[in-house]
Specification:
The chain has 228 residues and is an alpha/beta fold. It has helices at residues 2-10, 13-18, 81-93, 108-111, 113-122, 138-154, 162-174, 185-225; strands at 41-47, 59-64, 70-72, 101-104, 125-128. The radius of gyration is 25 Å and the shape is globular.
Length: 228
């Protein structure tokens, strides 16, 4: 009986013409590759057309695909690609890492010649999402929704103080367990840093060992040169 009802409803011509389709996308899922450490593979998007708050009306949302850690930056929708590169260096590169790849949409900033040349000089792979397919970077789109909900609940009635809530929203998101990783972005980020530090410590030990052997060989060579 249940199957009969499903078949009848799915074959209703009136419903097919007037209701939105909610089935999953056809074809095979091609997820983005999983990075092996924090802040080397990022996704980036803009929330725009916000009420003015201390002259800001936009938020670049940057997400680390490994730890799910986020960075929210208040800015203006009229910024140039040069100014945005300064924001990126100030808020991402100087505090975290230089990424190897960034996923973004095809907005004017991301396809500009300056941004393209900058990526080429820094050896960063630029992965542009497919037009009108938000699921290409669904993770960042979901973060946008959460941030907008947070601001709607906490900013003032006049909607002119949302920029003061951004640091708290960023901390709250990064300090909460993520549904996919079951850990907070902060904890995964610190674990990644710890592992990277251990790797660097190993490299230092190897260099020290190499230096000791090099000194021994140099000493032997000097002694051998003194022989008749």
């Amino acid at each position: 009986m249940t199957q009969f009802i499903k078949d009848y409803v799915s074959s209703c011509q009136q419903c097919s013409r007037n209701k939105n389709i909610h089935h999953k996308k056809f074809g095979l899922l091609k997820p983005l590759p999983n990075p092996n450490r924090p802040w080397i593979c990022l996704s980036m998007d803009f929330i725009t057309q916000l009420p003015l708050s201390n002259s800001f009306d936009s938020i670049p949302v940057i997400v680390d695909r490994f730890s799910k850690m986020v960075v929210f930056i208040p800015t203006m929708s009229s910024i140039t690609s040069l100014y945005f590169s300064h924001l990126f260096i100030k808020n991402i590169f100087s505090k975290l890492f230089l990424p190897s790849s960034i996923v973004s949409d095809r907005g004017p900033l991301f396809v500009s010649s300056f941004w393209t040349n900058l990526f080429q000089q820094l050896k960063i792979s630029r992965d542009l999402s497919t037009a009108y397919h938000l699921e290409t970077d669904g993770q960042t789109e979901r973060v946008n929704q959460i941030l907008e909900q947070y601001l709607c609940m906490y900013f003032s009635y006049h909607q002119d103080d949302w920029n003061t809530w951004l640091p708290l929203a960023e901390f709250d998101y990064n300090n909460s367990d993520h549904s996919s990783t079951k850990k907070s972005p902060f904890s995964l980020f610190m674990e990644g840093i710890h592992n990277l530090t251990q790797f660097k410590s190993l490299k230092i030990l190897l260099l020290e060992s190499y230096q000791q052997k090099s000194n021994q060989y140099s000493k032997m060579s000097r002694e051998n040169l003194k022989l008749p």
